[in-house]
Amino acid sequence: MVALAAAVRSLFAVKHTAARFFPDEYTYASLGRSIGEGHYAIRGATAHFPAFLEPLLTAPAWALFSTTTAYHLIQVENVILMSLACVPAYLLARYLRLSRGYALVCGVYAVAIPSFLFASFTLSDPVGYPFALAAVASGVRALDRPTIRRQALFLAFAGLATFARVQYLAVPAAYVAAAALLDRRRFPRAHWLVLAPIAPAFLAVLAVGPSRVLGLYSDNPVFKLNFGVLHAVGHWFLVHLFLLTLSTGVIVVPGAVAGLVRPRGRAERAFAFMAAALAFLLILQASSYSATGIERFRGRYVFLLLPLVPIAFGLYLKRGRPHRPLVIAIAVIVALAVARLPLSGYTGPVLSDDSPFLFAVTFVQLKLGITLSSLLVAALATLGAAAAVAVALVGRGFAAAIVTVGIAVVVSAGAVANDLDTTSTLRSQLPHRLTWVDDASPGRLVTAVLTPGGAPGDLFEPLYWNRSVQRELLLGNAYSGDTWRSAPAPVTAEGRLLGAQGNLLFDVVGTTVRLADARLLARERGFALSVTRPRLSTPADRPS
Hints:
There is one protein chain. The chain is an alpha/beta fold. Helices cover 59% and strands 6% of the residues. The chain has helices at residues 2-13, 24-36, 53-64, 67-83, 86-95, 100-112, 125-144, 148-164, 170-183, 187-190, 192-208, 210-214, 227-248, 253-259, 265-292, 299-302, 308-318, 324-340, 356-368, 370-393, 397-428, 436-440, 460-465, and strands at residues 41-42, 45-46, 446-450, 469-474, 487-488, 503-507, 519-524, 527-531. It has a 6-stranded mixed sheet with strand order 5-4-3-6-8-7. Strands 1-2 form a two-stranded antiparallel ribbon. The longest helix is centred in the last third of the chain and has 32 residues, at 397-428.
């Protein structure tokens, strides 16, 4: 299953030929290159960035191969890592005593989800996903029987997941919450090995401060929640629940919720408590970002929950499909919500960037139009709700799980098709040689100079593909597109541009730049690369 998923997904991942998820992709690529060079920095400044597992794994590719070759090798590496997620999904289903055939369906679903699209990007999501899912699987085993070996295995996977993506601190937090619910007063003694590193780490964050421990992630809005934004957070919490339900195809979600109610046996209780706690924490974090930043569905933050849905649905089937009123009530709520909340309000070029599911919906909108596509999605979701009720009353739960896998495959295909169309359009607008700055100034340091009126986001493309661009200066009232090191570029009366080193890469879209004694090396899509002593032309340099 791992080999098949890796082979199929790799064919499409390598067709994704242009980075576009900025500034995230630039951050991880820069850190990977810097590790290959023996340091941990971005544009010459040490990076306080705790999510170092992805750069560490990709550093050999960046160090040993050309930029474009390394880019595609990392895509294949991401695909292989995400394909491994089917293993913990299968093992967790088997540990909960689901049949071997059904466990295989759970494993297939873990690699069929639309979020597999993230393997095409140089992000941390493909690295964190298999380790986080393995942490959930090993965490359920440790909660069931908290031996030293099982707790140590959980800590290892949870640590790897957290160092890949800091948001997965929610996994050990969910474990602690589940342990407290499961063992109550005796949980500190039973789970001491897991608590031993977590408690000091929590105290260290409080003593030293989140900014020094979490670096860039210290701005997480979860740390800054207040009563003023609670209403917005609550609204987006419900929106995330709604869109997560739609992204699964609806059929298995009502039964999955029922599968977490009144579980039988310690293992099932451990899974129910940990899954519920993890869902709450991840959705809370995603909702906080949506309430305080760009208002959109943050599918990147919550897609770890998707493989847990068919497993919970399997428990519901194993117990004879209990809690039918609850299942019917959830199905009715979903049907009413999809009639009142058209997906067109959550799709678009920026709104769907974090969600491959919405990316697939956007693809359908481009083909059929917004009105018809919204009607189609609403009709399919209503059919899914009706199917959930039919499973509760009649049965055929295994068939419902198979249909859910089929829905995931279809949605994944739509997300990939839209991604390839978008990437192809973007690539046509980029230089023929993405490494044109490196090619024009081999072995030379390049300083990028952003000018007033320019678009700082446009600099990410040359920054990403050209390793020689190692400094960034801001001329006049220009501003940077990211939070990493940038410096103002003072200009003397003689036109001297202080702080510039090596060749100069100017943003010439919004401002005309005249240099004294300059030699133009290359010019591409709004940027000009020159060899010069860093001096701007003054009236004294120009003939009268």
